[in-house]
Amino acid sequence: MKHKYEEVKEKIIDWAIEEKYKPHEKIPTESELMSIFNVSRHTIRRAISDLDTQQYVYRIQGSGIYLSDWKQSDLHLKMNKNVGVLTTHISNYIFPDIIRGVENTLYDESYSLLLSSTNNNVMFENSNLKNLLAHKIDGLILEPTKSAYQSQNIGYLNNIMSQNIPFVMINASYSDIKAPSLRVDDFSGGKIATEHLISLGHKNIMGIFKVDDSQGINRMNGFITQCEKHEISSSPNQILTYLSEEVEAILPNRIEVILKSEQRPTGIFCYNDEIAYMTLHIAHKLNLKIPQDLSIIGFDDSTLSRVMDPKLTSVTHPKEKMGIDAAKLIIKLINNDNKFDDSDSILYEPKLVVRKSTASL
Description:
single chain; 361 residues; six-stranded mixed β-sheet
């Protein structure tokens, strides 16, 4: 839980970022701040002392508290370019590969990296965007949170654009934000995976898709398109959708119910390799053999796909290359006054890597 003085500090920093007060403009007095935040004078003085140390505000004896020219106040940040990187996750799955590509490329060009994650939570995205703006970033690499929905943090993103801070989106994009994006062609990936199962003779196939990000929606649409192309009729178990918050507590039980049913599918296309691993684990628990009883395909061709038993058939994701390309693009935009066009966006063409988790019916 945050202390009261920290909440006061964050709000005053918000005022600076949102330009409620301009550099060298007087902000409310201590007594006025006490009334605004309903806190003690001690709390206000501690907050102002920290902000003074961090060069967000300064005092003039007998006059009051003024907002500093905070974007120019830190000599270290003035001398070095700083790129913020905000992804949904950092330490697991494919994200270390993406971040390694970004990090190595930025460091080779003497850029500093400010790294944070949202855990695919809109409120965390909000607080991290606020924090990155407070650190006076020169560019931002952003993986949108809950990208199937309209961004709830459009205000901060518009603030970034109004300050002409370049930013690049990876893995997904916000439809209402004009910025370059680097994405996999998830729709084609969904078609490729589904076509592979159909080519092996599977007609009773199922797709498991996360539907609060655009990747899942596009992969699902590719799955549906190929099923319709081959006139594979819908069944109650053909599509299983879930939200990010349901992965641990709800999704495994729903998969187990389907695998126990009389209409159990013979082939399953999973949103990603993590869900494929979950499905394989449940199938093993139910004494189903992979691929004899059930063929499974994942997406992302992650390290996980190569350590599963049997090894997982999966659709490729460029991972480290995406990180390298994103870093190169943000450097280009920083050095080119944020001038970009549609040609700066990249849509990576996926391929299928066939391993031992799929077989003919």
